[in-house]
Amino acid sequence: MNLKSENRSYPRAAANMEVTYVDDSSPQPNYAQTRDFSATGISFPVTKKYEKGDMLTLEINIPEITKVIKSRATVVRNWHEGDTNYVSVQFFDIAYHDFIYLLDYSLTYHIEV
Predict the structure, then answer these.
(1) What is the torsional sign of CA 74, 59, 99, 36?
(2) pLDDT higher for 54 or 4?
């Protein structure tokens, strides 16, 4: 993967992690499985269409350990495949130790996606 050609600072890896997300319009939690992730964001299917700039509150469950990463995130991309909507979000208030953990995890499990 050429990080520079994709305008990426960190590698992304395929991953199937459980994510719980809540948008600012409803306190109702939604659940999904991630498609891929990096130290700065994730992508996953969503139950409704979100627009670029929409804010979500996330909890990401790391499968190999009992670690939950919490962060607020901004939708930076949305798309659909068939009947399924997807978003890519960028973390904006992730704890530094969680950022380092995700960076290490993505480098360890890095698969070009």
Answers:
(1) negative
(2) 54
